[in-house]
Write a structure and sequence with these properties.
The chain has 481 residues and is mainly β. The protein is built from 5 helices and 39 strands. The chain is globular, with a radius of gyration of 27 Å.
Length: 481
């Protein structure tokens, strides 16, 4: 009896240990793209999954008419095919449940979205740039991840969302068959209902990584309902976007705080390609940054770093696009540590670091030479002018007027958002700075204006004001001639 008891005890102990190990077993199973999207009925689509300690995967809850053709555990890919006809109960979209199993039978389940897209893909691969504009909802966009800027060769092996201004600005990010793809969904109202034909205004930054998981490049995705290429205006021989890079509208001097806030756009240190978010509120309250989220919807933050021999290089800033590099007195407050590079942006040709979309570039300071504050605005009482948060600037050559928002800057000393001028005795309520590609010695040129609250005889305007390059300022892009 003792032997039988011992055997039973041993078997029971092993079973308990197995169950215990199963419960505590370390495992992971994710589909980074979260979806498989196809362009037409009957078409197959593939995406990748990542797993640890998963030996098999099964698919259940498959939408009517769809099929799961292959789950390749070695390549870690899933292939599905959409229905080719819809004469029964077939559907154009739905969710597939995937369950991954460990060697001991423990499981982890997830859901992926599958759909036939209602619109054709929009392909940017023929015109590489550091910024891509997305204006059409329910559409998949794609670009070439092996080219940075205009022509910089890259050895990209995967991509990841670094940040976006709101969760879901872009969706279903994937890299396959030589392309990066992302999806722009329809915007939703406060009750979660789709707004037909509208996108969610926002900005996002996608990072590309090499085989050693080094961040080698990043691309700005500008999602807006107002296509800045269509609303462009003529100024001094240039075709200029009428909204700031990364903005969603031009407030045109309206005292509408949402329009004012939406008009600011993103901020750039001179010569860098990657954007920095703007203020959390239209009035720069507490100098707070606009909140951004990462690839899992968690709040993330830009980093403030001093310019050193390690951080103050173009190589470091490319690998750290979420960092603002603070200026140093002994280098004229440039973010570069030991040199001044006038080629990072270019007056006459689009550089590899140019942050504008394909076909557009950072302007020369010549763009603003014929502008000045419109006489009507300049004559306003202080109380009337302040709510505009900007000036209507008039082209002396044509008489045409263009509104520029007083979007302030990120200060070269500490990176903080600042919308007042440097007068310590009587700070000016708002000021505007716009980078150009022009340089002046160790500084760079910016168009500058402010509201002078001390005297009505002169409000500040300078078409080419020297500025420290560690400042981060807005940009108005111009079409390449």
């Amino acid at each position: 009896m003792k032997r039988v008891f011992s055997s039973i005890t041993l078997i029971a102990t092993c079973i308990m240990m197995l169950v215990s190990c199963s419960k505590k077993e370390v495992k992971s199973f994710v589909v980074p793209a979260e979806a498989i999207l196809v362009s037409m009925p009957g078409q197959s689509g593939t995406t990748s999954f990542k797993s640890y300690n998963i030996t098999s995967v099964t698919a259940t809850s498959i939408p009517s008419g769809w099929s799961v053709d292959d789950i390749d555990m070695y390549e870690q890919t899933i292939t599905v095919t959409a229905p080719s006809s819809f004469d029964k109960e077939e559907v154009t979209e739905g969710n597939i449940t995937l369950t991954g199993y460990t060697p001991t039978g423990a499981k982890k389940s997830l859901s992926i979205y599958v759909a036939i897209l209602p619109n054709a893909d929009i392909d940017f691969s023929a015109e590489p740039a550091n910024c891509y504009i997305a204006t059409q909802a329910e559409t998949r966009y794609r670009f070439n991840p092996y080219i940075g800027g205009n022509s910089t060769p890259l050895l990209t092996t995967r991509v990841e969302l670094l940040w976006e201004t709101k969760e879901g600005v872009i969706k279903y990010l994937d890299m396959r068959d030589g392309y990066v793809t992302f999806y722009i969904a329809e915007a939703e109202d406060k009750d979660g209902n789709a707004i037909e034909g509208k996108v969610t205004d926002g900005n996002a930054l996608i990072g590309g990584y090499d085989v050693n998981d080094n961040l080698v490049w990043s691309w700005h995705i500008w999602v807006t309902n107002e296509d800045p290429r269509q609303s462009a205006v003529s100024l001094n021989g240039y075709t200029m976007m009428n909204i700031n890079l990364g903005a969603f509208t031009n407030s045109n001097g309206e005292a509408d705080t949402k329009k004012i806030h939406d008009s600011y756009g993103l901020y750039y240190q001179w010569g860098r390609k990657d954007p920095l978010p703007g203020p959390y509120t239209w009035d720069f309250y507490n100098n707070a940054d606009y909140p951004i989220v990462d690839n899992v919807g968690e709040r993330t933050y830009i980093e403030y770093v001093d310019s050193t021999a390690d951080t103050g290089t173009t190589e470091w800033c490319i690998s750290n696009p979420m960092s603002i590099i603070l200026g140093r007195k002994d280098n004229s407050y440039n973010w570069l540590y030991s040199s001044t590079d006038d080629t990072l942006w270019n007056e006459s040709a689009k550089s590899q670091n140019d942050p504008c979309p394909a076909g557009w570039m950072v302007p020369s300071s010549a763009l603003y030479e014929t502008l000045n504050i419109a006489a009507k605005d300049d004559a306003m009482m202080w109380e009337e002018a302040q709510p505009m948060y900007g000036w209507m600037l008039e082209d002396s050559a044509t008489g045409n007027q263009h509104f520029f928002s007083a979007a302030g800057r990120r200060n070269y000393l500490d990176g903080r958002l600042d919308n007042m001028n440097d007068d310590l005795i009587l700070p000016i309520p708002w000021s505007g700075y716009y980078w150009t590609a022009s340089t002046e010695g160790e500084e760079a040129s910016a168009m500058y204006f402010d509201l002078n609250s001390e005297t009505r005889s002169w409000n500040g305007f300078d078409a080419a004001r020297p500025m420290h390059r560690a400042n981060a300022l807005p940009i108005r892009c111009v079409r390449i001639k």
